[in-house]
Design a protein that fits this description.
The chain is of the alpha/beta class and about 350 residues long. About 50% of the residues lie in helices and about 10% in strands. It contains twelve helices and eight strands. Helix 10 packs across helix 12.
């Protein structure tokens, strides 16, 4: 490329050296100006809505589309019309300093009801059910004014989108739990726990006509960032207006480099946790082997010493040494010496 062509293509003035020879700018310098570093894999890549921080951004962005998406999602999960949705602080304190606090992904008032929504990727110690019960109880306690009439106690909802199987024996992918007796009768509809299990939804055929509105949302969460599923996502947006709004938000927030940083940090955290688990498991395995080796060696020495003592005792008995003296010489019990005498 000559200097005239370069100037025409870039619109830059070509400086001259002291010798009068034009100096072309460094190509690497030009590349750094033209291409900014990015965590986005390719220009049309979309963030993963199954990732906790992205899920939260999707429904709490300050836009009408995000608000409509949240309203529609709640309507489809609760199974009732929803009109008035207002975001609330996502951290609830306890009544005492020592009380366990709750921090939610999304906390909102829904037509006078209270709902906490979470995306959960792990089932630590298989105790997520207890966590959900604690959260729904904390919501009820926090939003019920002291001394209020029981008729004024609000309904509360703990809604969890789970990226794991919670109940392998339950076929339904979306389940609504209430406090009930053995005959299935609920005490009231006050405390509600709703689980959407994404691994179960992933096994449901993609036929949109056979999906419930809640299952459509599950498919959106699973496929939202998959380049090969974008035609399917577009079909979902045509069937469910809330998903259409959510996709608009997802596309918009995917333009922001800061959100790709959040996604990258999430995956780093996942890798750190997996590494810690592997290392802890290996350390436990090695410690177990070491302890087992020590125990086995100790037991082996004890058995060897006992066998030697019994051999000596047998020889002393053959020599006519009294039982009590043999016991003294060998540290074996009188019963053991008598057993040896009878067997010989």
């Amino acid at each position: 490329m000559n200097t005239q062509t370069f100037a025409q293509q870039t619109g830059q003035t070509i400086p001259e050296s002291k010798t009068g020879i034009p100096v072309l700018p460094s190509l690497s310098h030009q590349s750094s100006k033209l291409m900014k570093p990015t965590l986005r894999p390719f220009p049309t890549a979309l963030l993963n809505p199954c990732i906790d921080p992205i899920f939260k951004i999707l429904f709490t962005t300050d836009s009408e589309e995000s608000h409509q998406a949240l309203t529609s999602f709640l309507c489809d999960l609760i199974g009732k019309p929803v009109t008035d949705v207002v975001l609330q602080p996502n951290e609830l304190s306890g009544e005492a300093i020592s009380d366990k606090q709750s921090e939610f992904d999304i906390n909102c008032k829904v037509d006078g009801k209270i709902a906490n929504i979470e995306m959960q990727g792990r089932n630590d110690a298989s105790d997520y059910g207890k966590r959900a019960e604690y959260h729904v109880a904390h919501l009820l306690n926090h939003y019920t004014p002291k001394g209020s009439a029981w008729l004024d106690v609000p309904e509360v909802f703990q809604i969890s989108v789970l990226n794991f199987i919670f109940d392998k024996d339950e076929e339904n992918s979306v389940n609504h739990y209430l406090l009930r007796n053995e005959n299935g009768r609920a005490i009231s509809n006050t405390m509600n726990v709703i689980f959407m299990e994404l691994p179960k939804i992933s096994k449901i055929p993609d036929d949109i006509d056979s999906l419930t509105p809640a299952q459509m949302w599950g498919k959106f969460f699973l496929y939202g960032s998959d380049p090969e599923k974008q035609d399917y996502i577009q079909e979902l947006t045509k069937r469910n207006r809330g998903i259409s709004m959510a996709f608009t938000v997802l596309d918009h927030v995917s333009q922001d480099e800061a959100n790709w940083y959040h996604e990258s940090r999430y995956w780093m955290h996942v890798s750190d946790e997996k590494t810690r688990l592997i290392v802890a498991t290996q350390n436990g395995h090695d410690a177990g082997l070491s302890e087992g080796h020590k125990k086995g060696l100790s037991e082996g020495l004890e058995r060897g010493q006992e066998k030697k003592a019994r051999d000596i005792a047998a020889n002393l008995l053959k020599a006519g040494i009294p039982v009590d003296q043999v016991a003294t010489f060998t540290n074996l019990s009188i019963e053991q010496i008598k057993e040896l005498a009878s067997s010989n």
